[in-house]
Specification:
- This protein starts with a strand and ends with a helix.
- It has helices at residues 13-22, 32-36, 53-60, 63-73, 83-87, 197-202, 212-223, 226-239, and strands at residues 2-5, 27-30, 45-48, 77-81, 89-94, 99-102, 108-114, 133-139, 144-149, 154-155, 161-166, 174-181, 184-189.
- The chain has a single domain, classed as 3-Layer(aba) Sandwich (Rossmann fold), CATH 3.40.50.880.
- By secondary structure, the protein is α/β, with parallel strands linked by helices.
- The chain has 8 helices and 13 strands.
- It is 29% helix and 29% strand.
- A 9-stranded mixed β-sheet has the order 2-1-3-4-13-12-11-8-9, with helices on both faces.
Length: 241
């Protein structure tokens, strides 16, 4: 059993579709109440998706995070994507101090810092433009391809293993990291490695979207790498099962 955490604020339908395309295991959504009621007792992995980690803090701080920590410590796996990656770090710094501080899960013993301003449409007013960007990552076996960036962090160089780096940024900072916690393991991904090009096209609208042309151009770049991105995402999931 694999659970995708849902907070009722953001939609994770694309993540569900992607997961169902790379594994034959049962994939379901869970809420903070379901976690408190013991849904992880029969799970192999929990996925904390993109969104905004302050919503996660509000619902899970205290009992919920202790249950997740115990789940991983006892042999479960955690996949954190974008907000879920910030959330599982020891501390985060978002927007040059707009949101900062320690986090309870504390799987990755380092700070997650973002967003990457060079990849945001409006660098002076980040909430007034699009964050969607096709960016290149390079894996630790020297494979490079484009995937989707949407506000994720860079990680301090303290990870057990760096799976992939942002190879077009200065100093090639870690983009995807892997580590162990007790008997379990975690992978934290800054980019949205689960958002394949065709899913992004399905979710792209012109209606009330001033950034449509920019986003369409970025997604068109991603479509060329859909096969390799899917294979990579499948390999990430396999490492945690």
């Amino acid at each position: 059993m694999i659970y995708i955490y849902t907070d009722g604020v953001t939609s994770d339908s694309h993540l569900m579709i992607s997961m169902q395309s790379v594994t034959n295991l049962d994939v379901r959504f869970c809420t903070n109440i379901m976690i408190a009621d013991g849904c992880l007792e029969h799970a192999k992995m929990i996925i904390m998706p993109g969104g905004a980690d302050m919503y996660y803090c509000e619902k899970l701080n205290g009992r919920g995070n202790k249950i997740i920590r115990d789940f991983v410590n006892n042999g479960g796996s955690y996949l954190g994507i974008c907000a879920g990656a910030y959330y599982a770090s020891s501390a985060l710094d978002w927007g040059c101090g707009e949101i900062s501080g320690s986090r309870e899960l504390d799987f990755f013993k380092g700070k997650a810092t973002g967003p990457i301003y060079d990849w945001i449409e409006n660098k002076t007013s980040i909430y007034d433009g699009s964050w969607i960007k096709a960016v290149e990552i390079e894996t630790n076996n020297r494979e490079a391809f484009l995937t989707q960036y949407n506000g994720g962090p860079v990680f301090e160089e303290t990870a057990d293993e760096v799976i992939a780096r942002y190879n077009t940024l200065e100093n090639n900072p870690p983009a995807i990291i892997n580590g162990t916690f007790g008997q379990g393991r975690y992978i934290l991904s800054s980019p949205h490695i689960e958002n394949f090009g065709h899913l992004l096209i399905d979710g792209l609208y012109k209606h009330h979207n001033k950034s449509y042309e920019r986003e369409r151009a970025e997604i068109d770049k991603l479509l060329e790498f859909e096969t390799v991105q899917k294979q990579f995402f499948q390999s990430i999931v396999a490492r945690l099962l």
